[in-house]
Every structure is written in structure tokens, then in C-alpha cells.
Amino acid sequence: MTDNSRRKFLRDLGGTAALLGAGSLAAFGKEQVHLLKPDTRISANDKIRIGCIGMGIMGFGDVETALKVPGVEFVAAADLYSGHLDKVKEVYGKDIFTTRDYRELLNRKDIDAVIVATPDHWHDTISIDAMEKGKAVYCEKPMVQQIEEGHKVIATQQRTKAVFQVGSQRVSSIALLEAKKRYEAGEIGQLNVVEARMDRHDALGAWQYSIPPDATPANIDFDTFLKDTAKVPFDPVRFFRWRNYKAYGTGIPGDLFVHLISGLHFITGSLGPERIYASGNLVQWKDGRDVPDVVVAIFDYPETKTHPAFQMTLRVNFADGGGGGEFTRFIGTEGVLELGWDDFKIKKHKLSQAPGYGGWDTWNTFPKSTQDAYVKQYNEKYPADQRKPAQRSENAYAAPQGYDSRKDHFINFFESMRTGKTVVEDATFGLRAAGPALVTNESYFSKKVIHWDAQKMRIV
């Protein structure tokens, strides 16, 4: 399902939701649509005060969503660009504490939790510093830029017992939870292959983000942004379009594959693949970036106690002339589960027990007398109930209009802070998703098959 068709699907669906109510069965064209019912539980017994480090696209989006949860207050923001901090005060008021130095934010005793929405190469350092200061951490995906950083984050969380949530919000979606239940119930039979793609065909989708006219060394702490990477002259393009560079981001795999991997691991319970091979190219966006705009990868998942071995193919194409689109298709022996974002379809195709004859078959090459003998023998061997044609059915499921899985992700995070409830995406889950994405980059640049130990989360 493409981005446009999925949005239309949910928009049209929302018109029926008000009439039918969540959880009921709606007739949508020729398709049966099941509206999923969100869990409305929210316990706001005390105030949680949050700060956000990194007030870019994800920072502003995360803060806006977090404040939809009762009992949450936004009190502080840190960013290396003064314009972002000015925007914070425009939106949330002049009393919000702002700083270029995230450590000032962490030193505040009145902050209970922080959102880490910086470029990828800062995730580990800030997350670890925050946990050491006793803060709960909501860290945007991918959790880390380097595999070893992930192990340090896990070790810090385990030692400090801090609440730590990775921000791949789709794992909190009611649609993903329902898809997991139906997968585990065997509705598509035995899983044999997974196809996933998340294509785009626009400049912003390809990370050509806007650069403000006042992007100067006076307004941007560029040296701090560089961290421990190579020292280069001030460059606002690197600062605002950091995803285009290996030094600061994680390319297509870290930005987008990680969503696809997270969804797969949540539904199947898989720990990760054992072999990864990736290829790709820089096709359209030759703007100085040093990462590809087309990546295709093959993941080999091993046999486990819960599922047989299967393959997963992942693709992101930033030069998609078809206009983009996304899905993850779980293809089994008896059907297909096609996952959107907050919606999915199950297309079942149960084969006839009898093999059939005719059509594209050697039966057509037999003499007439032999064909007659074959049919007589066939009917005696296979009873009528086994000769029924393949049975096909299709059902669609979707969250109601206005549903926000990122809000549910934050609800889970804040509930964990208040009650000790387990987060849905802890640091270990985060590295199990980020690790294969980072290995994809390793395979792409080395042009080699990479073996991955999913249990130990290390390259073999």
C-alpha cells in the first residue's frame, strides 16, 4: 500500500469509524475492514517534567506528542542552533529553559526524563550521561551509530536501572499488536519470506532539509556538533542535512530499515538475522552526500524454536519514480500479512488438498484414453472435499482516524516511569534492531556478506 493510498484508506475509514465505533466490522467497498480499538488507559498520578535535547524535526514532534499524555510538562530544551531555541520559546513560552549545552539540562534536579533527538552520532553519549544523572531516557532511533556504543548503553541502563525507551514508535501501534496476535495464531501458515520497502520520491524525503538564512558560526556551535569526527570548516549543509554523511548519521539503514526491522522482530519474536548482504547506489541525490540513496539488502534469519528459517529483503529507493510507498509483507504457506503503519491486511490462500490436473500440466499431453483413466483414478484417490479449489479470503484492519502510535509509545514510557511497567522497546531491543541496520552499512561499503551473532549482538 503506497503512502497516498494508505492515507486515503485511513481517511475514508475514519468517516465510518464515527458511525460504527472502534472494534466493529465495517463494509469498505468490497473489503471487510476491522477497526481496532485503542487502549485508553493513562495513569497520571503525578507530574513528569521533561527536557528535550535536539530540537529538530524529531525533537519538536516528540515534545508535541509527549505533551498529549496527561501529567507531562515540558520545561527545558537544548540545541546547538540558536534558532531552534528561539522557536521553542515561540511555541512553548518564554519560561522554557534553553541552552546550547545539554549538560546544563541534565544538571537540573527538576527534570525527570529527557528526549534525545540529536544526530545519531550523539545518541550514545547523551543517553549514557542522562542515565548517570538519574534521568529516564527516550532515545530516538537508531539507538546508536556504532555497535559497541549499543553495548555501553545497555550496560549503563542495566547498572543504573534507568527507564530507557527507543523511539521506533510503530512497536507500540495497536495494529502491530493485532498483527502479532494473528501471526502467532498461524493465520498465514509457516513464514517463509518477508519483503519490506519504504520508498520516497521527494527532496525532503531524501533529506534535503531547509537551511535557515541565519546559519552562521555565531548561531551554531559547529565544533560541538562534530564531536569526535574529523574536524572540518563550518558547513551548515552538514549541520542541517547530517543524515547525508557517514560521520554523523547511519544512512538509509539507520533511518528507515530500522523501522522495518523493529516491526519484524516485534511480530515474530526474532532476535535478528545471521547473514546480511547489501548493495545499492547513489542514483539521483548527488548533492555531496557520501551515503547511497538506493539500498537493497537480504537478511537470512535462522531457524529457532518459534519459527523456521526465512529470508527478508529490504529496500529503500529515494529515486522512486512511482511516487514512493511502504509496506512489510510476511509471506507464509497459507497467506500474506501486509503491514502498513497503523493498518494491515491478511490475504489468505489455502491450497486444495488435491494437486489438480489440466491447465499448465503434463495431463494435457496424454492421449484421450489415458486422460480418462487418469481422471477415474484421481477421483477415486481424492474425495470431493479434497478437490475443492484454492480458498481465498482477505481482511483489512486499521486504527481509527486520528490514532497516534507515537503517543502510545510515550504512554508506555511514562507508565514505566510511574509504575515500573516494562517498556516495549528497551536498550537490548534497540540494539537488536539497530545492529542489523548498521551491519547493512558495513556490508554495503565493504561489498561483503557479513555474519551477525544475533544473540551476542556482534559481528562474527
From TrEMBL:
Keyword Magnesium in annotation: no
Name listed for the protein in its UniProt record: Gfo/Idh/MocA family oxidoreductase
Domain of life from the UniProt record: Bacteria
InterPro entries in the record: Gfo/Idh/MocA-like_OxRdtase_N (IPR000683), Gfo/Idh/MocA_oxidrdct_glycsds (IPR050463), GFO_IDH_MocA-like_dom (IPR055170), NAD(P)-bd_dom_sf (IPR036291), TAT_signal (IPR006311)
Keywords: Oxidoreductase
UniProt key word Transferase: no
GO MF term set: nucleotide binding; oxidoreductase activity
Domain Gfo/Idh/MocA-like oxidoreductase N-terminal: 48-167
Domain GFO/IDH/MocA-like oxidoreductase: 240-337
